[in-house]
Amino acid sequence: xxAKRVAVLSPVAWRTPPRxxxxxxxxxxxxxxxxxxxxWDVTLFATRDSVTRAHLHAVVDRGYxxxxxxxxxxxxxxxxxxxxxxxxEFDLIHSHYDFMALAYTRLVKTPVLTxxxxxxxxxxxxxxxxxxxxxxxxxxxxxxxxGLNYLATVYNGIDLSLYPIQERGGDHLVFLGRIHPDKGVxxxxxxxxxxxxxxxxxxxxxxxxxxxxxxxxxxxxTIRYIGPVDVPGKNELFAQARALLHLNTIxxxxxxxxxxxxxAGVPVIAMDLGSCSEVIEDRQTGFLVNTxxxxxxxxxxxxxxxxxxxxxxxxxxxSIETMVAGYEQVYRTVFELEGKR
Length: 341
What we know:
- By secondary structure, the protein is α/β, with parallel strands linked by helices.
- The chain folds into two domains: 5-157 and 319-339, Rossmann fold; 160-317, Rossmann fold, CATH 3.40.50.2000.
- The protein is 34% helix and 17% strand.
- The protein is built from eleven helices and 13 strands.
- It has helices spanning 23-37, 72-85, 125-130, 185-195, 208-215, 231-240, 256-263, 276-279, 292-299, 307-317, 320-339, and strands at residues 5-9, 41-45, 55-57, 92-95, 112-116, 135-138, 150-153, 172-176, 199-202, 223-227, 241-246, 268-271, 286-289.
- It has a seven-stranded parallel β-sheet, with helices on both faces. It has a six-stranded parallel β-sheet with strand order 10-9-8-11-12-13, with helices on both faces.
- The chain is globular and about 60 Å long.
- It starts with a strand and ends with a helix.
- The mean pLDDT is 96.
């Protein structure tokens, strides 16, 4: 198996791994690094400024979200086509490029495995339906579309060495993620107000109107927005955190920040929507809630959560090693199925 050549196709919105925001690039990076560490011959297709121990293949200099001079569509299609023009050099292409890369899959003989990081809109589903017989992996059991040829669910894995455990934590509530209605920043603000606890908000502003109307008016000395943060910035937040609030308004697809917080020993209070119940073990690594009121009551029970237990669960279920072992099994399945054709 280790002699097989695998291409990992990462997005080019951000560098791989990203400096701050970029969940898909983070996962693609962790897979490439994990496979390389286990002896695989890996080529990472990503931006030219990406950092990897694998072979790096790039035609786009920087992420289009980081350089306004880059046209996103031009960058994406130069990048995706480059990977597929080199398909014959690989035994498998592992795509993290959503529906767009699927359009190339029938043009090459190399098998393509697609990790679906979420369905952004019903409008993209016709592409998935056309290529429904391809090879797919879901990142949670809850985030699946009927009729697709799923080979497995493989949970995202994080590099635990980046998130040392915070044995004690602090007195703040923390929100970390996209500033968007989907992520429920306004609900986190409401929970903070009702609980009387200070709140730190960090992340990229993805919806400027939402930020201006539902977040910015509430900012003061106790509810603060500090902008996007990198890994050291996340750890500074986790060191101050009594809990992470993740009061999402739509079903979560995976929720990488939930695992990152738990890795640092920080309890998570999340809405019981989508994958949150798969990532968070209710009353063990945090609390699953259905309303802001329940979230406020859960804050009174944080003493029940063992921070070391939070980290142990991430080590067992959401580490790079666990994720890569899961993908190795999926790769074996793909090679077996291809061998029967």
